[in-house]
């Protein structure tokens, strides 16, 4: 009985995460489609590019976590299980704000050339 409850909890948690990611992707898509390169200011366009970069980096972090990084004791504590996704999101946003990767800048320049 306990294993079926655990399985149900894991399924519910997974579905919740998938729905959250779909919502986040939909919001980003809407923001990108509503930001016309002809009417958007340079700062609005750059903000959208940074949001895209942050989303992309967050997905890379999550993918790396599930496929490449061996689990440690810290990963098993309840706080990391609960706040882990938030930490990845913050890391991605901070990395995007610094501009170190340059994905947002390249995307911005590409969109400006298409005007």
Characterise the protein shown here.
This protein is mainly alpha-helical and 115 residues long. The protein has helices at residues 2-34, 42-67, 73-76, 78-98, 103-113. α1 (2-34) runs antiparallel to α2 and α2 packs antiparallel against α4 (78-98).
> What separation lies between the terminal Cα atoms?
61 Å
Q: Which class best fits the helix and strand makeup?
A: mainly alpha
What is the overall silhouette? Answer: elongated
| Low-confidence residue ranges | none
Let me know the number of strands: 0
> How do the helices and strands follow one another from N- to C-terminus?
HHHHH
Number of helices: 5
- Share of helical residues: over 70%
The fraction of residues assigned to DSSP E strands is: under 5%
Based on CA atoms alone, the radius of gyration comes out at 18 Å
Main beta sheet: strand number and arrangement? none
Task: Write a concise keyword list for the protein shown above.
single chain; 115 residues; mainly alpha; 5 helices; 83% helix
Quick overview:
The chain has about 120 residues and is mostly helical.
Any chance you could write out the topology, listing elements then pairs?
Layout: H1 2-34, H2 42-67, H3 73-76, H4 78-98, H5 103-113
Helix pairs in contact: 1-2, 2-4, 2-5
């Amino acid at each position: 009985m306990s294993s079926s409850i655990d399985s149900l909890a894991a399924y519910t948690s997974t579905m919740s995460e998938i729905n959250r990611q779909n919502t986040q992707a939909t919001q980003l898509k809407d923001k990108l489609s509503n930001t016309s390169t002809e009417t958007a200011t340079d700062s609005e366009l750059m903000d959208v590019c940074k949001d895209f970069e942050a989303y992309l980096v967050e997905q890379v972090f999550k993918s790396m976590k599930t496929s490449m990084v061996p689990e440690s004791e810290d990963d098993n504590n309840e706080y990391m299980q609960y706040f882990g996704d938030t930490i990845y999101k913050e890391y991605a946003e901070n990395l995007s704000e610094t501009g170190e990767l340059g994905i947002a800048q390249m995307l911005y320049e590409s969109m400006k050339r298409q005007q």
